[in-house]
Amino acid sequence: MGRAAEMLGTTPSFLRAIGEARLITPLRSEGGHRRYSRYQLRVAARARELVDGGMAVDAACRIVILEDQLEEAQRINAEYRRAAATEAGNQDGDAGGGADEGGGGAQDTP
User: Are 80 and 90 in contact (CB under 8 A)?
Assistant: First the structure.
């Protein structure tokens, strides 16, 4: 924990506080030491930025959680859009050959 706090330029008590707020849950070593992933350190760094800007720890944690959820939702949305565009491209290719066949309705009107 001390090394993580040093890397972030903060204190171990800050890391404990964001842990208590359930922003991050570090793994524990066999000796009981907290082990933080790179992702958890990035999240902690973002929370620290907000707290350094004058925000309360619990509010900063909530904002970081919401930012993370928004990023995930945008990623999923982009995947759905890519899949829909691919599907539309496949359907356009299939429909292209059949468009010239049969009575075209709108082409008959001036």
Answer: no
